[in-house]
């Protein structure tokens, strides 16, 4: 019996296009792609300045409001009183408040005290004194009215700051080592590369329509302090045996609901070619990234399909026109990458890493911090990817005085384990996607654990990360925490819904106590309500301290023990 091959082919369903521009053409396949092609997101600034700031919130076009505004760092906040999860059932106009979250873009986390003071004054004058240091090294404000945005931009840009592409389907802020150019043990200073990328490419209309957000991180410090494994593009300082200091290239990391760690491409990138390589990888994402489905539009999905070898070949052949040099992998870190505490700079002065509780500060505090630093001769500081601050250029004789003054501001340079290692996303207070409250929950948890675990404080490890997220999207990196908490609504004893969390255990990124990154494990059915959270974490920590083997980290212990050791049971305290 013969088979008609052409007839079989005709019956076989055609593979749906992924919306890859260089494969499928540029015809939009969803509404997001339609509005991005209809008008570049960068163009909305003129309408904000000439129309919306003058005519008010109700004059804003919906595609600008919920789309292009992000290209300038603006998201609408959750309207007060909107219940958890309502964004899935209510129309967006019933979820949106008439105020905005505004992200100040801080590439490399580098700030002067003048810039810090201006951000603080903007917070005080236009944002109800709100300010959060994010785990992307930005500072985020809330309660911003569209009428005030042009004046905010004027003040920021007068001191060299801005909000260009702080959100949106764009190259987001470039993470940089908080001790770039400062640390005595630095392999290479990434500051020139970060500045060159920002100058050449941020705000470039040719790169302002990517499939989705695009995150970059660059460090030359041996502690690998920029969470490179969860960025789309990352450069990590290495020393090549022939070419000297440079960078190792990683691509395709990201968390959200489909976590994937970045992979090495096996290439050595010299300082002078780093910006060009960034541009090549970014163009590859623009031209080959998947655009049909938003939940498959990050670079990690393209890398998963291609693999690192093909990805490298494409950037070399189609975008660089040359073969990159093979290079070594970075060595495991031998110092902590959060930079908390007092450390010596290479010029003999000191830098001090401090811990605003889960990144929450205020405009008033930022102004006071700028004043404090200037009184002691410092005019520079850095934000970090861990919701921390690092103040620079403190004379050794002033260290203790400055540390005491910082602690009085709530910026502890010698924090407890949990104050040092806890981060939290924005949460339901402002975020439309969040299901539970995070910042206040985290702060209360830290306070309670400091008190309850005081009797075992000397037995605690230097670091034990607790990450609290308000929804499944993992802005607070729950899969890479020792204890990661994903917000959700849980049934209470009366069958009603109450805020709670799914528990992830034993994740982590490369750190001084961990040679390589790994994702946390989930235990079937392991969920805790917000009310149970402190009891559970206390119980878990005590079990770890009692049951760990010599030198065993919490992550190692939590992956080794049986599920029963990780389940919640009533805490029995002596």
In short:
This protein is of the alpha+beta class and 574 residues long.
Task: Describe this entry's structure for a reader.
Helices cover 31% and strands 21% of the residues. By secondary structure, it is α+β, with helices and mostly antiparallel strands. The strands form four sheets. It has a six-stranded mixed β-sheet. The longest helix is centred in the middle third of the chain and has 15 residues, at 274-288. The protein is globular and about 65 Å long. It starts with a helix and ends in an 8-residue tail after the last helix. The mean pLDDT is 95. Keywords: 4Fe-4S, Heme, Iron, Iron-sulfur, Metal-binding, Oxidoreductase, Thioether bond.
Number of strands: 21
Average residue pLDDT: 95
Major β-sheet strand ordering = 6-7-8-9-10-11
- Given as residue ranges, the uncertain stretches (5+ residues, pLDDT < 50) are none
First and last CA, distance: 82 Å
Quaternary structure type: single chain
Query: How much β-strand is present in the residues?
Result: 15-25%
Helix content range: 25-40%
**Largest sheet composition:** 6 strands, mixed
Query: So what's the overall shape?
Result: globular
Number of helices: 19
Structural class: alpha+beta
Question: Over the alpha carbons, how many angstroms does the gyration radius reach?
Answer: 24 Å
């Amino acid at each position: 019996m013969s088979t008609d091959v052409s007839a079989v082919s005709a019956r076989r369903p055609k593979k749906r296009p992924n919306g890859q521009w260089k494969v499928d053409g540029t015809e939009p396949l969803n509404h997001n792609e339609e509005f991005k092609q209809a008008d570049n997101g960068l163009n909305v600034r003129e309408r904000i300045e000439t129309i919306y700031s003058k005519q008010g919130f109700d004059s804003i076009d919906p595609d600008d409001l919920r789309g292009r505004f992000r290209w300038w760092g603006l998201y609408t906040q959750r309207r007060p009183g909107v219940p958890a999860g309502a964004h899935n059932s209510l129309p967006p106009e019933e979820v949106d408040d008439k105020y905005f979250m505004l992200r100040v873009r801080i590439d490399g986390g580098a700030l002067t005290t003048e810039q810090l003071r201006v951000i603080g004054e903007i917070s005080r004058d236009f944002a109800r004194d709100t300010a959060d240091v994010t785990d992307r090294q930005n500072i985020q404000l809330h309660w911003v009215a569209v009428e005030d945005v042009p004046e905010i931009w004027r003040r920021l840009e007068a001191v060299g700051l801005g909000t260009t592409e702080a959100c949106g389907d764009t190259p987001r802020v470039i993470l940089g080592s908080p001790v770039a150019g400062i640390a005595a043990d630095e392999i290479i200073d990434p500051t020139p590369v970060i500045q060159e990328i920002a100058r050449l490419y941020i705000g470039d209309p040719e790169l302002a329509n990517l499939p989705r957000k695009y995150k970059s991180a660059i460090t030359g410090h041996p502690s690998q302090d920029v969470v490179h494994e969860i960025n789309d593009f990352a450069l990590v300082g290495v020393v090549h045996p022939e070419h000297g200091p440079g960078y190792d290239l990683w691509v395709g990391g990201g968390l959200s609901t489909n976590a994937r760690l970045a992979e090495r491409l096996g290439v050595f990138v010299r300082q002078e070619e780093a910006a060009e390589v960034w541009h090549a990888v970014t163009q590859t994402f623009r031209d080959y990234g998947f655009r049909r489905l938003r939940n498959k539009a990050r670079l990690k999905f393209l890398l998963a399909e291609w693999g690192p070898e093909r990805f490298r070949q494409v950037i070399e052949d189609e975008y660089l026109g040359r073969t990159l040099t093979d290079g070594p992998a970075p060595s495991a870190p031998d110092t902590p990458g959060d930079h908390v505490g007092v450390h010596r700079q290479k010029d003999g002065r000191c830098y001090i890493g401090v811990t605003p509780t889960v990144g929450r500060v205020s405009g008033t505090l930022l102004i006071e911090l700028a004043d404090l630093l200037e009184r002691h001769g410092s005019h520079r500081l850095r934000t970090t990817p861990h919701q921390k601050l690092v103040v620079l250029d403190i004379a050794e004789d002033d260290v203790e005085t400055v540390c005491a003054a910082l602690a009085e501001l709530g910026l502890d340079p010698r924090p407890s384990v949990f104050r040092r290692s806890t981060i939290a996303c924005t949460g339901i207070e402002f975020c439309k996607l969040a299901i539970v409250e995070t910042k206040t929950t985290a702060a209360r948890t830290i306070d309670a654990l400091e008190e309850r675990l005081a009797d075992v404080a000397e037995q605690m490890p230097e670091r034990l990360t607790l990450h609290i997220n308000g929804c499944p999207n993992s802005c607070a990196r729950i899969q890479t925490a020792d204890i990661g908490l994903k917000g959700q609504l849980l049934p209470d004893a009366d069958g009603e819904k109450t805020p709670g969390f799914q528990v992830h255990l034993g994740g982590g990124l490369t750190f001084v106590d961990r040679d390589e990154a790994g994702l946390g494990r989930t235990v079937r059915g392991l969920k805790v309500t917000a009310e149970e959270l402190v009891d559970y974490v206390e119980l878990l920590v005590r079990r770890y301290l009692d049951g760990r083997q010599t030198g065993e980290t919490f992550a190692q212990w939590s992956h080794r023990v049986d599920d029963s050791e990780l389940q919640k049971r009533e805490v029995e305290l002596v």
